[in-house]
Amino acid sequence: MRIVLVGPPGAGKGTQATRLAEKLSIPHISTGDLFRANISRQTELGKLAKSYMDAGNLVPDEVTIAMAKDRMEQPDAENGFLLDGFPRNVSQAEALDELLTTEDMRLDAVLDLEAPEDEVVKRIAGRRICRKDSSHVFHVTYSKPKTEGVCDVCGGELYQRDDDAEDTVRKRLEVYHTQTEPIIDYYKAQGLVVTISALGAVDEVTGRAMEALKRDGDGA
Question: How far apart, in Å, do the first and last CA atoms of the chain sit?
């Protein structure tokens, strides 16, 4: 299957992308991973992307698209892939369509993880990270530490990242609504969008997504 995964910040895209890709035996291709891989390998595209990032500028669509094209042409993506964070806007979605058409491929589904804005803000703004080990993550509502402000694992101080502050989260959501959400309508016009609720336990959401993709695939 060839799938695009979309949803607002805090909807659990990263977690679900990893789980779904594993269950479907296809590679999980995320924009962040593409940038990191190209920059660490010092590819021409990586050097170009880094030059924009170092200057504090956004990486142009054509660079992101070229990285995605290169990754989708790798042997492990022959039977499909799951795109996470790309396309990020309608112009990238149009470029992806052109690319797939050229390669005689097509998307099977666009999985839209839906979550109410207040829930998204609550999820992200409530996160607390351990200063000693950032892999230790707690939540003021869903995963409280035994002692407030103290990591259960190593005793490190728990803090809220600047990116997780409520004002910042709401700004990120504004960017999502303005830039990325329009691709849902773009793909709805093609009959590709499958919308599921991102609320509930991780396993529940994964099961919901697999069932929705199976139904969509059967109907295709």
Answer: 12
Q: What is the pLDDT of residue 106?
A: 93
Q: Is 200 annotated as a binding residue?
A: yes
Task: Consult the annotation and say whether 14 binds a ligand.
Answer: yes
Q: What type of residue is 3? A: I
Q: CATH number for the domain including 96?
A: 3.40.50.300
Residue 41: inside a domain? no
**The one catalytic residue among 2, 13, 71, 128:** 13
Alpha-carbon distance of 10 to 134, in angstroms, equals: 17
Whether residue 90 contacts residue 182, with contact meaning beta carbons closer than 8 Å, is answered with yes
CA-angle at 176, arms to 136 and 120, nearest 5°? 45
Residues of the chain with pLDDT under 70: 217-220
**Pair 59, 35: CB distance under 8 Å:** yes
Query: 8-67: per-residue pLDDT in tens?
Result: 999 999 999 999 999 999 999 998 899 999 999 999 999 999 999 999 888 899 999 999
Q: Is 65 a member of any domain?
A: no
Return the SS3 of 6.
strand
Measured between alpha carbons, how far is 157 from 127 in angstroms, rounded to an integer?
A: 13
